[in-house]
Amino acid sequence: MEKVIEVHNLVKKFGSFVANDHLNFDVFQGEIFGFLGANGAGKTTAMKILCGLSSPTSGQVKVAGFDIYKETEKIKRNIGYMSQKFSLYEDMTIAENIRFFSGIYGISPKNRKEKQDKLLKDLDLESAKDSLIGSLPLGWKQKLAFSVAIFHDPKIVFLDEPTGGVDPITRRKFWDLIYEASDRGITIFVTTHYMDEAEYCNRVSIMNEGRIEALDTPDNLKKQFGAKNMDEVFLKIARNVE
Amino acid sequence: MIIMIPLLQMLVLVFAATYDLKNVNIYLVDKDMSSTSRELASKLDASPFFTINNTSFNPDDGEKAILDNKDHMVLVIPQGFERNLIRDDKASLQLLVNAIDGQAAQLGYSYAASVIRDFNKNIIAEWKGLPEFNPPYQINAVSRFWYNSELEYKWYMAPGVLCILVTLIGLFLSGMSLVKEKEQGTIEQLNVTPIRKIQFLAGKLIPFVVIALFDLSFGLLIAKLVFHLPVVGSLWLVFGFGMLYLLGILGLGLFVSTLADTQQQVMFVTYFFMMIFILMGGVFTPVDSMPHWAQIVDEGNPIYHFIRVMRMVVLKGSNFGDLIHEFIAMSIIGITFLSLAVLRYRKTA
Amino acid sequence: MKQFIGFLRKEFLHIFRDPRTMLIIFLLPIVQLLLFGKVINTDIQNSKIAILDQSHDNTTREITSKLMSSGYFVLGEELMPSDDVEDVFRKGKVKMVVTFGTNFEQTLERDGKVDVQLLADASDPNTARILTNYASGIINDYVKKEKLKNIELPNQINTEVRMLYNEGLKSVYMFVPGIMAMILMLISAMMTSISISKEKELGTMEVLLASPLKPIQIVLGKVTPYLLLSFVNALTIIIIGVFIFGVPIKGSFFLLMAESFLFILMALSLGILISTVAPNQMVAMFISVLALMLPTILLSGFMFPIENMPLPLRIISHAMPPRWFIVIIKNIMLKGTGIMYVWKETLILMFMAFVFIALSIKNFKIRLE
């Protein structure tokens, strides 16, 4: 399988504080890759480096086949990003948001029109096309934000704790969208601290204090740590480190 | 914060806001070069307001110095000044004044003119061998400055600045705090609790009245210690009116907060109205100089009344009887703002 | 380019969708200018004064009518000797009381001199000083023209005064440049800093940074609308100043526009700098108001001449960009000078813009690392 993210000895320091301590991992095409860790474990830092929002202190990193030091611009064309906060403009309508983000990624107006119609239909939001984002319920905003983040068909989409503050049913529905995207061949890189969500991933890595302590499929991890669910895996790792 | 901001504001605003004229730079063009012209120049230079900064024989250089903002005035003493003064009994001087700041120009000119007049009297007396020269008819305008004999501008500004300060605190803090509850959604929670709205509002607003009144007393104390501001009238009257004023201002803050959804919007709207209220309230410029319609509009401007009362009580010792008009006007304004706010608040939240 | 236009469209949507922002951007400049031009006046006219005339002779009546016909004063009250002057001042109805003693004219004829008392309410010292100045000027004038008209005085020095650049001594000449500086500062610096920190606060900034847009494109996209709006405002202020208040543009219009452009650029870079420091909109707003607005009004020479301030404030005022801009505008508009007389101020503004941009880039880099 094709590797879309290759990370080799990635180190990130802020002064004397080591946020990422020699990270090594690969992510494969079409995979849902869960990036887990407690708050402050360094997962957001690592993700920002992969998105080109921040530069590493040392190590080799390739995203979508491009080098993180020299080809950031090419990387940015091939990724999507959704931040913890919903990253759509509340004072603009759904259509205006889509138009704006398509413009940034250079999608032609004709192309946009077709995709927009399909998207609204899939999400059952056709009647809300001209409603302001601010007037929509949280769950809808989230789905829209995700759909907009993959509107330009990126190779990889980075989701930074996308389901914070949402009820379990909405979260479940959100994951349906993620599966659909994955089926279309989009690689999903997702950080979360909900352990039930870790079960939905193809593979997960668990970070603690800047290091990756475990990386495998959820099933293998459960076996390896003799645990019933991911929650226990996580607790055991945390205890081991201490 | 509560201590530092008023302190800084008082010090910076009051020191910066002054029309007192010092340091007027004069460019001297003395083409006469006589003992009289030299004596006049040294008279001007010796006065506390003027400094002779540059001299030359070419008036054009003087105008250039004004263009360059180096000097404020050019005094041209023409050739034959002394001779004309003795032979023809009259001679002329030219004074060129940079009048972009019209008020400073007017003031500077009148100071210069009075120095020249005194000088004129002295030389006549000297030349005629008299102890003192007086024209046959003379009406002396004797000016007495009541309440502020030294014309200390800081005494005028300090009460005004205090008013702004108290208003800023009352208006911004009250407006913001309610919108913050709205932004965070806590207001909805409160609306389902048994607390009555009036109680809730009172609970929110009373701390701001206390803070604002504290700042008022603190500011007065600074003004007294730093600027030696005399407080002639009754402090009870100042604080009594202050309370009344704050109720109105808090009502206004509350009203603004019902119009806005975010703190930023509150800031914008408040900023807009504050600007107008302050400028029209007569902090920097006298309300009497405004056109008649603006003076009528000002009857509805709370800041105008507050500043007026502050200055009247603090500087002149006006009593309650003198201020009945202001008390009535302020009560009407306050009740209007408060009822508007409560009405809007009932509807929105 | 297409990307950029899309970005601009979005920025304008943000601006036009919020009526409160529109209030500040479009209404505030006009309201302020009109207020300053029509209402806020340091020019004294129709000040209420009281007369206490214990003589009621020809001379006192003539002086009174001279005072009233000058346009500076109106008669607020006629006092009786038994009235308490203190009481009149305390009520705040009049600003000055002119007092003629008994046998005024007789004393003048007999002794050749007499005093008239000008009692001024100096709780507003500035007005008090101006009123007494005007009144004594009018009285002096009266004596010269009416009493001394047939008498030759020896050795008279006559001072001819020429008020340069503002013969009518209109205060709006001072205010137009000041308001321009203030509004441009407000819209360029405050609005940009708020709008950039808003993206940061909402998390959209990260999305933009993770997109193919280059950081410089993002910054330009955020800044350009405010550049345009500031320019429109500068023009509006100049047009109102010229056509409604009769403020002249003696110098080159082109130079005026170029200098305004420079000032706007400087203010925009300051706005960007503030947004790199402020974590959210509220902080950006507070920095802008406290650090920009108050000093702009007070320490820039807009309302109060800088030369009269105490030394520490005079020193601080050098760091205030509007101070230099106001000098430039006054020179170009009112004095009609060219670049020769404002090159120093221009260089200072350029230097400030450069420093702000350099600091912003530095802060921005630190954030990315």
Keywords:
heterotrimer, A: about 240 residues, alpha/beta, six-stranded mixed sheet, four-stranded antiparallel sheet, 9 helices, 10 strands, about 40% helix, globular, B: about 350 residues, abc type-2 transporter like fold, about 10% strand, elongated
- How would a textbook summarize the main sheet of chain C? 4 strands, mixed
Separation, N- and C-terminal Cα atoms of chain B: 31 Å
Helix content of chain B: 55-70%
Largest sheet of chain B: 4 strands, mixed
* Radius of gyration of CA atoms of chain B, rounded to a whole number: 28 Å
Instruction: Specify the overall morphology of chain B.
Output: elongated
Number of strands of chain C: 5
Strand order of the biggest β-sheet of chain B: 2-1-3-4
- Across the major sheet of chain C, the strand order is 2-1-3-4
Domain module count of chain B: 2
**Count of individual helical segments of chain B:** 13
DSSP strand tally of chain B: 5
Q: How much strand content do the residues of chain C show?
A: 5-15%
Output mean pLDDT of chain B.
84
Give the CA-based shape of chain C: elongated
Q: Return Rg of chain C in Å.
A: 28 Å
The largest chain-to-chain contact, stated as pair and per-chain residue counts, equals: B-C, 101 and 106 residues
Helix vs. strand class of chain C: alpha/beta
Describe the protein in words.
The complex is a heterotrimer of chains A (242), B (349) and C (369). Chain A is built from 9 helices and 10 strands. With 242 residues, chain A is of the alpha/beta class. In chain A, a hairpin with a 2-residue loop joins β1 (3-14) and β2 (17-28). In chain A, α5 (138-149) runs parallel beside α6 and α8 (218-225) crosses α9 (230-241). Chain B has a 4-stranded mixed β-sheet, with helices on both faces. Chain B has helices at 4-16, 35-46, 59-67, 81-87, 102-128, 153-184, 186-192, 197-227, 235-259, 263-281, 292-298, 302-316, 324-348, and strands at residues 24-30, 50-56, 73-77, 90-98, 138-146. Chain B is elongated. The mean pLDDT of chain B is 84. In chain B, α1 crosses α6, α6 (153-184) runs antiparallel to α12 and α9 (235-259) runs antiparallel to α12 (302-316). Chain C folds into 2 domains: 2-40 and 170-368, no CATH class; 47-147, abc type-2 transporter like domain (abc type-2 transporter like fold). In chain C, strands 2-1-3-4 form a 4-stranded mixed β-sheet. Chain C is elongated and about 95 Å long. The two termini of chain C are 28 Å apart. Classes of the chains: A alpha/beta (242), B alpha/beta (349), C alpha/beta (369). Chains B and C meet through α1, α3, β4, α5 and β5 of B and α2, α4, β4, α6 and β5 of C.
